[in-house]
Amino acid sequence: MARTLLLLAVLFAGQFSHGLDAQQAHELIKQQKPDLLGDGSQLVSLYYFGHSADTSIVGLERVGEDYLPIRWLLIFNGEKLLGWYYPAYEFPAKFDAGYLIFPQGAGVKDVYLWPAPPPSITIGNTVVPFYETDKQIN
Q: Please, which residues have CB within 8 angstroms of residue 2's CB and are 6 or more apart in sequence?
């Protein structure tokens, strides 16, 4: 069984006091939806993409049994995990003024998350649904 590693990568888009950092996000995930972190035997990485108002965006990546990444795009409102987009084949470059902004060439249109995350986003030709926190982890 692989040793458990926790790699926290922090990308700051601003310095507002109500924005989450990766360590805070990890603690909130452990409290609110620990299944997202897996069974403890997989490499887990968190990526912070920024915040606007009370909304913060965090990418969670686990390495699966086949050594391929499994990705979720988590949406927080303050300290509450609202839910996630899964599978997130592409992570945004940043989150700014309510928009998830994806890298050029990714084939993903920017997504506006206010007043609430849309029920799905399209990545390439795949419709990726939004799962509210009370849903079971895939």
A: 41, 42, 43
List 128's β-bridge partners, or say none. Answer: 121
| Tokens found for residue 10 | 């922090």
Burial of 101 (0-12, 13-18, 19+ CB in 10 A): middle
Q: What is the pLDDT of residues 62-112, one digit of tens each?
A: 987 788 889 999 999 999 999 999 999 899 999 999 999 999 888 888 999
Q: Considering the entire predicted model, what is its pTM? A: 0.81
Tokens representing residue 73 in the block: 């795009």
Q: At 102, list the tokens.
A: 């994806």
- Give the C-alpha separation, 51 to 127, whole Å: 24
From the CB of residue 96, how many other CB atoms can be counted at a distance below 10 Å? 17
